[in-house]
Design goal:
The protein is an all-alpha fold and about 170 residues long. It has seven helices and no strands. It folds into two domains: about 55 residues; about 110 residues, no CATH class.
């Protein structure tokens, strides 16, 4: 048993004993086992919260925020990817970029149209159109980051899909 746990157990035992003695001195006839159970329960919850707090890793919120003034497209993930590419920030490569963009397309299809692209390929193809469907279905060919015109075209198609979805929601 580590020193940390010995200290914890000693502290809970000492507080429990002090509470029992204080209640006995005041002639309150304390229930020793009930007080022990309450002390163990409170200590267990407190230790769990403290130990889970040690496991938490810092979060990098910059990947999910877009401080730009661009008003094109409403999906923050597309704007963040566009900004990362234009600022020359390193991405994990074309495969990771394609996976991110496909997840955006899947989200728009699911939320705005109630379509699961994998489960309902015909309906998804009708909504996506041939260019976006080709991008979603095809494996990455070449370096997507090295072809800015193709990447811009894909981003524009995704933004149009999201804009069409929003305009249908407002009707």
């Amino acid at each position: 048993m580590s020193g940390r746990w010995r200290l914890r157990i000693a502290t809970v035992t000492g507080l429990w004993f002090a509470t029992v003695v204080a209640l006995a001195v005041m002639d309150m006839r304390p229930s020793v086992t009930v007080l022990a159970a309450v002390a163990v329960a409170i200590a267990g919850i407190l230790w769990l919260m403290l130990d889970l707090g040690d496991l938490a890793a810092p979060v990098d919120w910059r990947a999910y925020s877009d401080g730009g003034t661009s008003i094109r497209g409403a999906d923050t993930r597309v704007r963040v990817l566009r900004r990362q590419i234009s600022d020359g920030r390193a991405l994990d490569g074309s495969a990771a970029l394609q996976r991110s963009l496909v997840s955006v397309v899947d989200d728009v299809l699911a939320t705005a149209h109630g379509i699961d692209r994998v489960g309902q390929p015909m309906q998804a193809a009708a909504v996506l159109g041939p260019r976006l469907q080709g991008f979603v279905d095809a494996p990455v060919s070449g370096d997507l980051l090295a072809d800015p015109a193709r990447l811009a075209s894909v981003l524009d198609e995704i933004e149009r899909l999201a804009d069409r979805s929003r305009s249908q929601e407002t009707r």
